[in-house]
């Protein structure tokens, strides 16, 4: 690891909020941060919380730091507690940290739009999908009509088609919940979840989810031209791609969407981009 550079953990959702841990090596000691990783600085939200970090040595937490934060928002680093961690807590290159967050108040953070485990849902469900011990009570025919993956899973020649409970592996239950909400035509797509939801599109082949994600990118998203263009190409979002092409007006715009690996774009797209480049102003 390089000094003064941030290294981030994978994003996890808790209380409908995306979190990350970050470590920043310094010359004398590393700094550890808890990051509330809301995507855009324009988001109108804030969090009041009490945070406690426990650092472990020899299997025991003998270094505890805590702090209270009010009105935290806009991608701010939640916590560095003003001092680095002594190097003797790093054993064989590993640092063990446990973080506890108690949220007192949130503003502008919406919860789930639909429940998949309430009594009404259970009454009409005919299969239970299990994601990391979280249960989702759903209807086979509806999911099959929206996804070729679930059509094969529920009605194909698989052992799972006969089961009343089916485990889905290697996915996050929060993102799967968001994915299901979009399948049920709920406005669950936002800046924080859209990339993860689209990853499930690859797994489950759900055209309606792609359409709703495309609408979000076109009409509401504040993400960069590069992010939108690459999503349009990867998930075959024709309308979004056309909009992005129209927004490429300068050489800098053009450079921003060019991938490091040329194989990410097919020959036809490269031809289209070459034609576009001839029309650009300097």
UniProtKB/TrEMBL annotation:
<dbReference type="InterPro" id="IPR011333">
    <property type="entry name" value="SKP1/BTB/POZ_sf"/>
</dbReference>
<dbReference type="Pfam" id="PF00651">
    <property type="entry name" value="BTB"/>
</dbReference>
<protein>
    <recommendedName>
        <fullName>BTB domain-containing protein</fullName>
    </recommendedName>
</protein>
<feature type="domain" description="BTB">
    <location>
        <begin position="125"/>
        <end position="184"/>
    </location>
</feature>
<dbReference type="Pfam" id="PF00917">
    <property type="entry name" value="MATH"/>
</dbReference>
<dbReference type="InterPro" id="IPR052664">
    <property type="entry name" value="BTB-MATH_domain_protein"/>
</dbReference>
<dbReference type="InterPro" id="IPR000210">
    <property type="entry name" value="BTB/POZ_dom"/>
</dbReference>
<dbReference type="InterPro" id="IPR002083">
    <property type="entry name" value="MATH/TRAF_dom"/>
</dbReference>
């Amino acid at each position: 690891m390089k000094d003064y550079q941030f290294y981030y953990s994978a994003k996890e959702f808790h209380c409908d909020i995306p979190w990350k841990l970050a470590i920043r090596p310094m010359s004398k000691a590393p700094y550890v941060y808890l990051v509330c990783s809301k995507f855009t600085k324009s988001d109108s939200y804030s969090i009041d919380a009490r945070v406690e970090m426990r650092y472990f040595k020899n299997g025991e937490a003998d270094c505890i730091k805590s702090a209270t934060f009010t009105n935290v928002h806009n991608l701010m680093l939640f916590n560095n507690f003003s001092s680095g961690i002594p190097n003797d807590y790093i054993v064989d290159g590993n640092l063990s940290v446990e973080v506890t967050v108690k949220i007192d108040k949130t503003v502008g953070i919406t919860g789930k739009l639909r429940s998949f485990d309430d009594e009404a849902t259970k009454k009409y469900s005919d299969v239970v999908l299990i994601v990391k011990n979280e249960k989702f009570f759903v209807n086979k025919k509806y999911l099959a009509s929206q996804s070729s993956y679930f059509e094969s899973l529920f009605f194909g020649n698989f052992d799972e088609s006969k089961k009343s409970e089916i485990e889905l592996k290697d996915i996050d239950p929060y993102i799967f919940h968001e994915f299901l909400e979009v399948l049920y035509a709920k406005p669950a797509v936002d800046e924080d979840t859209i990339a993860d939801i689209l990853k499930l599109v690859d797994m489950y082949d759900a055209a309606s989810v792609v359409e709703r994600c495309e609408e979000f990118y076109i009409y509401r998203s504040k993400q960069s031209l590069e992010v939108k263009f690459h999503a349009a190409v990867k998930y075959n979002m024709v309308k979004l791609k056309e909009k992005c092409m129209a927004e490429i007006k300068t050489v800098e715009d053009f450079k921003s969407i060019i991938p490091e690996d040329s194989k990410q774009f097919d020959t036809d797209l490269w031809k289209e981009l070459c034609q576009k480049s001839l029309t650009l102003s300097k």
